[in-house]
Amino acid sequence: MTTTTTLAPLVITGCGVVSPAGVGLEALADMVNGTVNGTVNGTVNGIEGGHQPGEAELEAIGGEFPPVPLAATPDFRAEEHLEGKGVRSLDRTTRLALVASALALSGLGTPLADRDRARTGVVMGTSTGSVRSSSEFSRETLVREKPYLVRANHFPPSVMNFCASQIAIRNSLRGVNATIADGRISGLAAVRYARNAIAQGHVDRALVGAVEELCPQSAWGWYLSDALARDAAVGEGAAVFVVETPEGAAASGRTPLAELLACEVGTMGMSGLRRGMAVCVGRALERSGVSAESITTVSLGATGLRGLRAAEEDGVRAALGGLPPHRIRTADVMGESFSASGSLQIAALLAAWRPRDGAVGPVALVTSVGDDGNVGCLVVRRAAS
Amino acid sequence: MPEGASRRVVVTGLGAVSSLGTGARAFTEAIREGRSGVSPIRSFDATGFPHTFAGEVHDFEPGRILRRLRTGQWGRSSLFAASAARLAVTDAGVDPGLLSAARAGSAMGTTLGESTVVEALTGQWVREGMKQLDPALVRQAPASRIAVAVNAELALTGEAHTVATACSASNYTLGYAYDMVRTGEADFMIGGGADSVNRWEHAGFYRLGALAESVCRPFDTRRSGILTAEGGVALFLEPLESAVARGARIYAEMLGYGVNCDAKHPVAPDPTSIAECIRAAHHNAGVRPEDVDYICAHGTGTPTNDATEVSAVREVFGDRLPPISSIKSMIGHTMGAASGFGALICCMALYDGFLPPTANVTEIDPALGPGVDCVPGRGRPASPRIAQNHGFAFGGNNAITILGRAA
Q: Which parts of the chain span the membrane according to its record (chain A) (predicted)?
């Protein structure tokens, strides 16, 4: 009863990324192109070059961290990248996402006109908003002399849509403004949500991405839950893409960086993550109209997680008949970045495609899996030069 | 031009877990009578708060509703969502095996996610330090679990999106679910939302000066703000063709929706932008202002909301305002579930033939201008054909759904 027709591709025309590799796609490209490998056994967990924050930086982030490896955006000063007031007082989630958004917009060959901004949406993936902002606000109700003596201006950031709405407010983007909290697959789910919003004419284009901040709350959560593989780091980052139709991009003179083909997500992994991942990859290929043989690269997500890593790779293997020759394991560079992982994986792929003579083939999968049974697979094609 | 096949989409199942009862029928009867679900707060220690009332669900027993989920492993919002979804699917009379085998998924809205779980973890942090956080609670904290709980309870394999666009979130989910069914991406979808009453939200709204003492009075001269509230709501959406083929009861047809963002201020709403959202919803649904027989208002009970919402409606409807009422006057502000409860009552109003009331109104604020019919007191028999359901949120996130009487 459901359709299995091939989808019309959308294109990425702008990309902004902030990660433990540094600010911008260039910094990520330097690091990713040092770690992309063509062999099966070439990967180790932990940081291969991603930035491990020093004491001063951890002090700037604030709070006491557990004894696990950490990966943070080096020397992150949002105010150097953003105009307008009050940047320093925003939470880290919002600052990371705002800088990624600003970079995505400023890198457009043709900037968005005012009338374009009214028809531009924002779709952001997040785990639980800034869990630091909400738990610190919650804490105030317990430690103040009276429970209501909280700071009113700290309340909106404790609500999960604060980040997406700040992106809209600071860039005058008046279309659909969605916050997608789908856990580890949030970055891919955001692409799927945005595809519908654009294809159904609710907006002409959207800033699409995901964000995760490094904070003591989530780091302790990872540490105590024992879900991280040995030596894997807790990371962070944000990646934001300008996504539009090929026609829209062409009419505005914006050059595509990549084509987004099908993005399939679901809870088909609840009864078995491997099988669920394989089904998801199979559907994404079918909806994209590309063959398994044409996939030469996969950008994997669950590299730093116990159990999930094997399930993800086995699922891809089952769907394709083997792992593609090129594997990008983003978490090796940036640590485990939970809800931001899918978007950072897309960014890493764009980074790997940056050298025109690079070895990475032109059709790639971006896969994601969560311990809640959620699986996702996006097919991305390098733009024809 | 929109892409994909275009199918008509109908609502055939409704589920509610609310302060006014469990199940769409119990909820609807209470609303029609103008009853209040507001009571003194029990879910957290409200000592020290000047205002201590909320719309809590005191008799929530998820174990009596859920068939698959182990209730001890999920947070309160997830249990609200899964329970409402189970009720909606049962109400729809659809074969559970068929659902599991089909391309079926959920999109559930929320404002604060698993707030009571985050609050419990915060308590552990304050008392014992972060080293002592309970890992079992940590696993319950991600907001994503709200939609995942729905899929797990119903053994669905399709997408499970938790849409966190604050207080318009349910309308966001219903719009997305509608598009998925309409274009053939999904066979069946569940839309709705869930949120839990919690201390931090109560404190936040109090400090914003937006919290009423014990009575919520939208449109009334004496209104003083919102009451925080909780619950879960779910609507089961399927193609008209499949509903007719299986002889299902059709509550309403979903006609379309509109979404936009003010992009101006974190908390102050903008009437011009809301008016644009109404127009976008009308355009998407293929209706004109004069076709709309009823507006289920966002109607939080703050003076700002009343003024903004009525002004926006005037911009589109001129001086001929349809009846516009607020069920928040009875159940309080259920946050991410709020526009889902609004959609549910719109379906029931279209199906049963009535207009939902605004409770607690003694004098409609003359400052709102002439012609504001907020259906004061009790529900009114009527035969609305098209209903417009409002949801607005922090960050200027507006979402409006349009529902029509089944032909």
A: none
